[in-house]
Every structure is written in C-alpha cells, then in structure tokens.
Amino acid sequence: MPWKRYLLEIGTGVDLHGEDYTKAAKRAVKDAISGCSMIGLRSCCGLKNREEVNEKVLVDVTVAVPEPDKVDSKAVLEELPEGARRIKVVQGGMRFPTPLNTDLADIHGVVVAAAIIVVLVKD
Q1: How far is CA 74 from CA 11, 26, 39, 44, 80, in A?
Q2: Which CATH number covers residue 47?
Q3: What is the pTM of this model?
Q4: 28-60: pLDDT as tens digits
C-alpha cells in the first residue's frame, strides 16, 4: 500500500554549550513536534490501538547538522511519541564559530540543527 502524507513540520534545535550534536538534533525534533497536534489521526484513519498506529503510521525524520556522524540517531527518535520511525541525518545546520571567525575561536562552540518531520499514513 502506498503512503500518504499527513503532516509536515519543521523545527530547529541548539546546543549552546558543549557542541552536543545529539542534543541539538533532539531539540530540533522536539521543536517540530511541539508545533503540531495529530489529534484525530486515529479516528480519521480508523486506527484502534497503538499497535495499528505503529503499523500504519510512519514518522520520517530528516535532521541536518554540520557533522552527521556525531548524532545518536536512536536517541533522537526517542523524542517521538508513537508510530514507526525512521531517521536520516544529513550534512547541514550550523556550527559557530566557523573557520571564518578565527578571531572568535576561543568562544565555546554552538551547534544548530534543523529537522523536518513528515508523518505518513498507510491506506
């Protein structure tokens, strides 16, 4: 059965101290899901319980950070309340200071992550 898009949300997350890429990614996901409510998803799609939701709802997460290999994907997905989950971590986001700000190199690094969450429902 094909997937149908139900919802798309965008979020940003920042770690101001410690350059923790996973923390920034988790905050981006939390920001995205806090801006939406899927109330009625179960009744609209005829889903009776959590097992059906996990079978017929897919939450697809894409997170962009400067160094994707520094993100614990499993920990990021734990921010999602329900549904089957998948994640792709890609190059993007921002780290400050940048190599161009060498005069600010003594400032502790800041990491910014961006997340896009798409909720898909199976017919």
Answers
A1: 18, 10, 25, 29, 11
A2: 3.30.1330.20
A3: 0.87
A4: 999 999 877 776 677 777 777 777 777 888 999
